[in-house]
Design a protein that fits this description.
The structure holds two protein chains of two kinds. By secondary structure, chain A is mainly alpha-helical. Chain A is built from 13 helices and four strands. In chain A, the strands form two sheets. In chain A, strands 1-4 form a two-stranded antiparallel sheet. A two-stranded antiparallel sheet of chain A has the order 2-3. The model of chain A has no long low-confidence stretch (mean pLDDT 86). Chain B starts with a strand and ends with a helix. In chain B, a hairpin with a 4-residue loop joins strand 1 and strand 2. By secondary structure, chain B is mainly alpha-helical. In chain B, helix 2 crosses helix 12. Chain B is 68% helix and 4% strand. The N terminus of chain B is likely disordered. The longest helix of chain B has 27 residues. In chain B, strands 1-2 form a two-stranded antiparallel ribbon. Chain B has a two-stranded antiparallel sheet with strand order 3-4. The chains are: A mainly alpha, B mainly alpha.
Chain lengths: 318, 351
């Protein structure tokens, strides 16, 4: 294979991101402002938190369609807890702590359920997670009766609107999760096991990798990430709408993973790649919108981008 | 026989038709509804369930073909939305242009899926995901982000709201003192046009699967692509055609959607792909390909549609008050039971 295609394969996504930024610096008015940066980063944060879990799941050769529904479950549950509707809370701070921890745990438990279905019954991941994709949002809607829950709790909303060193707090959350996941994937035995399962499950099993346990953990992580993303979304909107939280996010997350260069059949994964993928997709959308192209046309561009990225990705295997 | 699954017992071997279970379950559900709710088996309810279910049945049929080759088509929902927009835009020119427009745009989307999968060798899951986004974007662009109303001047609406045999309906069936077969005949003459379309598609599909070489090829490709290639089967062409079928049927479902609700709806169809996959799985078709039943898929999609109707009737009884949101919970639970039962069966057959 020629040097150019090797280069494109390895650095194509980064190159695309750099080109996008240069294009915007040249043509989009008010691009080089902290406000633009903050808008784009806050949009990316939600997709990326979900994308971290999705990358790990895809690294094992699986897929998680239920992420959006789990976001809705966590997002619908949280306000019920910190406003004291579900059970009396002694004070606001305990309520907020419980309103963060419990919904994330519930989302993690639903993730465990996904993993249980997949490992216990050897059901294909796309079907196993389809169950909660369909039922999960329904559960959240039944809880809230489909009603919008509006709340005004600034202490809770710090998750989204607060800033630390001038950077929105949710971007910090994203950064911490990205760094932790990158480290886990690269430096820990668990990370190696995840990639081994994705590369060749039968071989991994023979080599003594606890396949069922690792897979289950990966789906739990994906559930936890979805739960966190759900909380970020409701904190941003100061309202929880079970019908809308995380709707269609599974597609954005999968697209970010694909564009980022993670092998969709498993065995090779890069969290930073997913971050770059998420940034590219967000920036393309922003670029088109800022230059007067309608959102619907941006969808078509996104489709072309996914195909191009995956096609480039499989060139080195041919 | 492809529609036969073999289960080896400890002492003897017995066979039962794959999908028999889901058909029996469907009948049981119908019987339950008829016993519990007044008017459940009345012609009005039966016919409106059929009218409403036909779009989903069409999409599920296409999905069944795709899944039998071991693939998946996530684009059907947004292709149906695109089909509904295009056919609504063409409806002022008459029934045929509207129908052809929806069908052709669906076929085009299916062809793009097929080309990406066979030529660029990209996983079906990703290829159809991209086409899903592109079709949805195109539908929104064409429709200008709003629904496109259908022309009431032409016969286009009859594709969704008409009854094909209504003009032939003899008057005596509706008479007070009609004899016993007036009921069944009334159902026949009141059979909705979209349900006729779906029925015709299923009959064709079943014929192709059972008696045409293409049907064998589909199962062979799903059973093992390498082996099918080595046998000299036209694998690429088979895969391409399967996506073409799925896209065309999705476009057709879009035509019916537009005709039934009087508007092309660019944002409809979200989640249809998952409904279709669920119907196919409930029908017992394996997602790994190589096996499948057209009839059981029809039963599967009717079954999932019926759950909605039963929830409505149950609410009408006044004992409980379940919101519409329960239907997705019930459908999900139902899918769960089916996949677990299926998975347990598969384990038994393997051992």
């Amino acid at each position: 294979m020629s040097d150019i295609s090797v280069f494109l394969k390895r650095w194509g996504a980064v190159l695309a991101l750099v080109l996008l930024i240069l294009f915007n610096l040249a043509f989009t008015p008010h691009f080089a402002t902290t406000q633009t940066l903050a808008i784009n980063l806050t949009q990316v944060a939600v997709v990326m938190v979900v994308g971290v879990g999705m990358t790990l799941v895809i690294a094992t050769g699986g897929i998680d369609l239920s992420v959006g529904s789990l976001m809705a479950i966590a997002g619908a549950l949280s306000p019920m807890i910190f406003t004291g509707q579900l059970f009396p809370v002694p004070n606001l701070y305990v309520g907020i702590a419980l309103g963060i921890v419990l919904p994330v745990m519930v989302a993690g438990m639903f993730g465990y359920f996904n993993g249980w279905l997949i490992t216990r019954f050897s059901i294909q991941p796309i079907i196993a997670t389809l169950v909660l994709f369909i039922a999960g949002r329904g559960i959240a809607q039944v809880w809230t009766n489909g009603d919008l829950q509006v709340f005004k709790v600034p202490e809770f909303q710090q998750i989204a609107i607060g800033r630390l060193l001038g950077v929105p707090f949710q971007v910090w959350i994203m950064a911490v999760i990205v760094i932790a996941a990158t480290w886990t994937l690269r430096k820990t035995v668990f990370g190696r096991q995840v990639l081994a399962i994705g590369g060749n499950e039968a071989a991994a099993r023979l080599a003594g990798v606890p396949v069922a346990r690792v897979k289950t953990i990966v789906y739990v992580v994906s559930g936890v990430c979805s739960g966190i993303a759900g909380l970020i979304v409701i904190a941003m909107n100061s309202a929880a709408d079970a019908n809308l939280i995380g709707l269609g996010i599974e597609l954005d997350a999968i697209a970010a993973v694909a564009v980022g260069g993670t092998l969709l059949t498993g065995g090779r994964a890069t969290i930073l790649g997913t971050l770059i993928g998420a940034l590219i997709i967000q920036l393309v959308r922003y670029t088109l919108l800022a230059n007067g192209v309608p959102d619907s046309a941006a969808l078509i561009v996104k489709a072309g981008l996914i195909i191009l990225a995956v096609w480039l990705q499989r060139q080195d295997r041919a | 026989m492809t529609s036969i699954a073999t289960f080896r017992g400890a002492t003897r071997e017995f066979r039962f038709p794959q999908g028999l279970g889901v058909v029996l379950l469907l009948l049981a559900l119908v019987a339950f509804g008829g016993w519990r709710y007044e008017g459940f088996l009345g012609s009005y309810n039966v016919l409106s369930v059929l009218r409403y279910s036909s779009m989903f049945a069409l999409v599920s049929l296409g999905m069944c073909f795709v899944i039998m080759t071991g693939g998946i088509d996530l684009s059907v929902g947004s292709v149906a939305a695109l089909g509904s927009v295009v056919s609504a835009m063409l409806s002022p020119y008459g029934l045929l242009p509207g129908l052809a427009g929806g069908l052709l745009v669906g076929a085009a989307a299916g062809a793009i899926n097929g080309l990406i999968i066979t030529r660029l060798k990209i996983l079906p899951f990703i290829a159809t995901l991209a086409v899903m986004l592109a079709a949805s974007g195109t539908a929104l662009l064409l429709a200008g982000n709003q629904s496109v109303s259908v022309s009431y001047e032409t016969a286009f609406m009859t594709l969704g709201q008409g009854d094909l045999l209504a003009p032939l309906r003899p008057e005596w069936i509706d008479a007070e003192d009609a004899n016993w077969f007036a009921g069944p005949l009334g159902l026949l003459f009141g059979f909705p046009t979209p349900a006729w379309i779906a029925l015709a598609a299923y009959v064709l599909g079943a014929i192709v699967m059972r008696w045409r070489a293409f049907g064998r090829h589909v199962l062979a490709v799903g059973g093992g692509e390498e082996a099918a290639l080595l046998m000299g089967l036209p694998v690429g062409r088979t895969v391409f055609i399967v996506y073409l079928i799925s896209g065309s049927l999705a476009g057709l479902a879009g035509v019916i959607l537009a005709a039934q609700f009087g508007a092309g709806q660019p944002v409809e169809g979200a989640g249809w792909e998952l409904f279709a996959i669920a119907s196919v799985v409930v029908g017992g078709t394996l997602l790994t390909g190589g096996k499948g039943s057209i009839v059981a898929t029809l039963a599967g999609s009717l079954l999932l549609g019926l759950i909605y109707t039963i929830l409505n009737f149950e609410n009408g009884m006044g004992w409980i008050s379940l919101s519409a949101y329960w239907q997705s919970v019930v459908r999900g639970a139902f899918l769960l039971v089916v996949v677990i039962v299926q998975a347990s069966f598969m384990k038994n057959t393997k051992s």
